[in-house]
Design a protein that fits this description.
- This protein is an alpha+beta fold and 180 residues long.
- The chain is built from four helices and nine strands.
- Helix 1 runs antiparallel to helix 2.
- It is elongated, with a radius of gyration of 20 Å.
């Protein structure tokens, strides 16, 4: 079970036991019952939705929620970090991360170009429908604590085409060994 639904279950339990809920300050059951019960109900709904989503093999509840708060490059970096963690916890020598670009929020609806730079950033350029212009770009370095990037790759992808990143076990962090 993921920690996310546990957090909201615990918040609901604490609110029921203490008579105080916490959302934009403290809400006491005796002083503002409607707001208190709305807050506790929100805890329960988020916990239940997270549990329901965690049964989906395609995404954890946390990744589903954080998708709304991130951009295309940050989601790719998260996939790389997750893949590095899975590689480190297994006995495998390598692992392929498959990243599927989302159109929104802050993603690419059409074709895109990805640059994974040596010891530096991931940059994604989203292309126009005709592929002739860049309509937005996104960048991050949040993958660097989890993986080494020994060289730079630049890859063009069509709309809906997944990006593949090979990770190889090393003495230190897993290293990106191929992007295609």
């Amino acid at each position: 079970m993921d920690w996310f639904p546990l957090l909201f279950m615990a918040a609901a339990a604490v609110a029921l036991v203490t008579g105080r809920a916490y959302f934009r300050g403290t809400v006491a059951r005796a002083e503002a019952p409607a707001r208190y019960w709305s807050t506790v109900g929100g805890y329960v709904v988020i916990a239940c939705a997270s549990l329901a989503l965690s049964s989906s093999p395609s995404a954890s509840p946390l990744s589903w929620i954080t998708d709304f708060l991130t951009d295309a490059a940050t989601r790719l970096a998260r996939d790389l970090r997750d893949g590095a963690g899975r590689l480190e916890s297994s006995s495998a020598a390598d692992r392929t991360v498959i990243h599927r670009m989302k159109a929104s929020p802050e993603g690419c609806s059409h074709g895109y170009r990805v640059q994974v730079s040596a010891a530096s950033s991931i940059v994604i350029w989203c292309k126009s429908e005709d592929g002739q212009r860049t309509v937005s770009s996104h960048g991050t370095t949040s993958h660097l604590p989890a993986v080494d990037v020994p060289q730079t790759w630049i890859v063009d992808k069509a709309a809906g085409e997944p990006l593949y990143l090979d990770l190889t076990r090393t003495a230190g962090k897993p290293a990106v060994s191929r992007v295609y």
